[in-house]
């Protein structure tokens, strides 16, 4: 069995089991994360290390709000490598983040459909 990328139980617990607030935060994540993710990709395409670092930091915060520790760790790695000007490393991490983000989004959508 694979470990969940999005731990809905831990997320709900962090919100005192307020499902309405959880849905609101998750909806914002589903809306905003693709925009920031694509912006990070464009920064990497433009060799903009500073922009990439800031965008990875922003994604890290978003992923922290929903308590996705795996995504937080990946975003932190991208933030550090970009800050250090290691954009090839950041691009490789971005590829892994992209796959993990897609899986997390699927888990979140399933959680939200449970009503």
| CATH superfamily annotation | HPT domain
Instruction: Provide the residue-averaged pLDDT.
Output: 95
What share of the residues lie within helices? over 70%
Rg over alpha carbons = 14 Å
The CATH class designation is: Mainly Alpha
Overall, the morphology is elongated
Largest sheet: none
Q: What would CATH call the architecture? A: Up-down Bundle
User: What name is given to the CATH topology?
Assistant: Four Helix Bundle (Hemerythrin (Met), subunit A)
| Share of residues in strands | under 5%
Total DSSP helices: 5
Order of helices and strands: HHHHH
The counted number of beta strands is 0
Low-confidence runs of at least 5 consecutive residues: none
Query: How widely separated are the two ends?
Result: 25 Å
- Into how many domains do the coordinates divide? 1
Secondary-structure-derived class: mainly alpha
